[in-house]
UniProtKB/TrEMBL annotation:
UniProt-listed InterPro entries: Hemerythrin-like
Source species of the chain: Tessaracoccus lapidicaptus
Protein name: Hemerythrin
Name of a matching Pfam family: Hemerythrin
Domain of life: Bacteria
Length: 152
């Protein structure tokens, strides 16, 4: 988790970064299950239960607002595509294709790095107060509609 620019002090970004830590930890548990012959479908389900709501919250709130700005549109669209790709890789691992574990883990860590050390600091510097209010509202409404608890 990046802490050099202070973007993690923005509530929604701090939350997303904390969720990234949980997701990486769950990925480690999946890796151990794949390596040690554990319950891969259960660990993949655990990870999917963290990853799915997390990426949906990012897309509904932060990403939807950032995409309106030309300088962010292409990058955010790329990250959304990576969300789909990660979901597909994880589903394939859960279905038994354990050879994809390395590909998934590298892609996940690379994706999180792009957000933590690229997109989030850019958002902190580039978005204004009204946009953050909108992001907070959209994220909050999405979480309540889906029953996803906030991690503080």
């Amino acid at each position: 988790m990046c802490s050099y620019c202070g973007c993690d002090s923005i509530t929604v970004i701090g939350r997303f970064m904390a969720e990234h830590v949980e997701i990486v930890n769950a990925c480690g548990q999946l890796r151990r299950a794949v390596t040690d012959g554990g319950d891969v479908p259960a660990r993949a389900r655990d990870l999917a239960h963290l990853l799915g709501p997390h990426t949906q919250s990012e897309e509904v709130g932060l990403f939807s607002v950032m995409k309106r700005r030309d300088e962010f549109t292409e990058h955010v669209n790329g990250l959304c595509g990576e969300h789909r790709s990660l979901d597909e890789l994880l589903a394939a691992i859960a279905a038994g294709d354990h050879s994809l574990m390395d590909t998934f883990e590298v892609a996940l860590r690379d994706h999180i790095d792009k957000e933590d050390n690229g997109l989030f600091p850019a958002a902190a510097l580039g978005l204004d107060g009204d946009e953050w209010t909108e992001i907070d509202g959209k994220t909050h409404e999405h979480d309540h509609a889906t029953g996803v608890p906030h991690h503080h």
